[in-house]
C-alpha cells in the first residue's frame, strides 16, 4: 500500500483535534495537541488518546493518574498552535492562559469548547504513539448561551499548518 493512499483516506475524515493536559504528583504539568483520539467503548464508556513517545507530555502522562481532553472551538487556533508547536519541556504552555484545577488535580483550559477528565485505565503501545485509555470522571460543555458553543470544533485540517514542537 502507498502512504499517499492512506493519507487521502484519513484526509476525508477530518476528525477533531484535542489538547490533552497532564499533571503529575511531583508538580510537573504538560499539554499537547493530539490528532489521534476516539471513544473506544460504550459500556463502560471509555476514550483513548494517543500520545507520541517523542512528546514531553507523554512522559508526564506516564506519571499522571488523570488526563484532561479538550475540544477547542475553531476560532482558537492560537491554543492549538501553543500546545502543538511548543515543547512542554522547554516552555510553560499554561503561563498566561486561562485555566483552572479540575478533578483530582487535573488541568482544565477554561477557553475550551468542551472537556472531560478521565482516570488512566490502561495504556497500549501502538508504535510511535501510546494509547491512554481513560475512564471519564467529569465533563463539561460550554452553555448554549456562550458564543463559543455555536462554533464547530477545531479539526485536523484546521491545524494542518502547525509544526510539532517536540524534539525530533
Characterise this structure:
The chain has 168 residues and is α+β, with helices and mostly antiparallel strands. It has a single domain (16-25, 37-103, 118-160), classed as Pnp Oxidase, Chain A (Roll). It is 17% helix and 36% strand. The protein is built from three helices and nine strands. The chain has helices at residues 3-13, 56-63, 77-85; strands at 18-23, 29-34, 37-41, 46-52, 66-71, 99-101, 107-109, 114-125, 129-141. The strands form two sheets. Strands 2-1-5-8-9-4-3 form a seven-stranded antiparallel beta sheet. The chain has a two-stranded antiparallel ribbon with strand order 6-7. It is globular. The two termini are 26 Å apart. The mean pLDDT is 89.
Distance between the termini: 26 Å
Describe the biggest sheet?
A: 7 strands, antiparallel
Can you count the helices? 3
Tell me the domain tally: 1
CATH class: Mainly Beta
The secondary-structure element order is: HEEEEHEHEEEE
Care to count the β-strands?
A: 9
Oligomer: single chain
Uncertain runs are none
Task: Indicate the CATH topology.
Answer: Pnp Oxidase, Chain A
Question: What labels describe this entry?
Answer:
168 residues, Flavin_Rdtase-like_dom, 17% helix, NADH-dep_flavin_reductase, Pnp Oxidase, Chain A, 7-stranded antiparallel beta sheet, alpha+beta, single chain, Split_barrel_FMN-bd, 9 strands, globular, two-stranded antiparallel sheet
Task: Please provide a brief summary of the model.
By secondary structure, the protein is an alpha+beta fold.
Q: How are the secondary structure elements laid out?
A:
Elements: H1 3-13, E1 18-23, E2 29-34, E3 37-41, E4 46-52, H2 56-63, E5 66-71, H3 77-85, E6 99-101, E7 107-109, E8 114-125, E9 129-141
Antiparallel strand pairs: 1-2, 1-5, 3-4, 4-9, 5-8, 6-7, 8-9
Amino acid at each position: 500500500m502507498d502512504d499517499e493512499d492512506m493519507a487521502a483516506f484519513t484526509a476525508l475524515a477530518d476528525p477533531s483535534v484535542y489538547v490533552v493536559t497532564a499533571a503529575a504528583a511531583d508538580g510537573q504539568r504538560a499539554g499537547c495537541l493530539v490528532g489521534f483520539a476516539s471513544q473506544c467503548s460504550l459500556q463502560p464508556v471509555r476514550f483513548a488518546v494517543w500520545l507520541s513517545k517523542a512528546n514531553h507530555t507523554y512522559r508526564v502522562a506516564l506519571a499522571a493518574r488523570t488526563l484532561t481532553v479538550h475540544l477547542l472551538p475553531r476560532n482558537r487556533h492560537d491554543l492549538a498552535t501553543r500546545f502543538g508547536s511548543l515543547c512542554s519541556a522547554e516552555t510553560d504552555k499554561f503561563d498566561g492562559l486561562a485555566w483552572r484545577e479540575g478533578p483530582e488535580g487535573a488541568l482544565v483550559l477554561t477557553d475550551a469548547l468542551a472537556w472531560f477528565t478521565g482516570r488512566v485505565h490502561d495504556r497500549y503501545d501502538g508504535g510511535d504513539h501510546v494509547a491512554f485509555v481513560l475512564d471519564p470522571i467529569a465533563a463539561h460543555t460550554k452553555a448554549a448561551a456562550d458564543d463559543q458553543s455555536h462554533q464547530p470544533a477545531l479539526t485536523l485540517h484546521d491545524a494542518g499548518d502547525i509544526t510539532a514542537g517536540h524534539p525530533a
